[in-house]
Design a protein that fits this description.
By secondary structure, this protein is an alpha/beta fold. It is globular and about 45 Å long. The protein starts with a strand and ends in a 5-residue tail after the last strand. The longest helix has 17 residues.
Length: about 150
């Protein structure tokens, strides 16, 4: 599982010109899955994401977590996080989990965040989405579950 975490001042996602989700300050999470991902991995990645100390404290130092400062999450499914660009010029997505399995894990990921009383907005799984954000910092961090096994 990979999660690209972006600290955001505001963000939104549109499908067919209609806004499906929008947030003010918080996190934009681009979320992708691969073979072998499961609920245990989702739990670890959620914990890592919401406890990252990437928000400024009273001294302007990134020392606070999402849980400490609050806000909302815009969660976007993103199979292209598993692009393999080592050969040729066309990325391969063979490591990305197929849509049927991936949507189940993505829905579970979002449900677990919502169960923690976090405001979670989403786009539409598998749709052509247009994501806009004002990245704060800019702060962008890639989390890969392979790094935590």
């Amino acid at each position: 599982m990979r999660v690209l975490v972006q600290k955001s001042l505001e963000a939104s996602v549109k499908v067919d010109g209609k806004i499906l989700g929008s947030i003010d300050s918080g996190l934009v999470l681009l979320v992708g899955f691969t073979e072998g991902d499961n609920e245990e991995i989702i739990d670890k990645m959620i914990s890592k994401t919401i406890n990252l100390r990437i928000f400024e404290d009273e001294n302007g130092v990134m020392n606070k977590s999402f849980l400490e400062v609050g806000g909302s999450i815009l969660s976007i499914s993103q199979f292209t996080l598993y692009a393999d660009t080592r050969k040729g010029r066309r990325p391969s997505y063979l490591k990305a989990l197929n849509g049927e399995k991936s949507v189940l894990l993505y829905d579970l990921f979002n449900k677990k965040l919502k169960d923690m009383n976090i405001d979670v907005q989403t786009g539409k799984f598998g749709a052509d989405m247009k994501v806009s954000l004002v990245n704060d910092g800019p702060t962008t961090i890639m989390l890969d579950s392979e790094d935590y096994k």
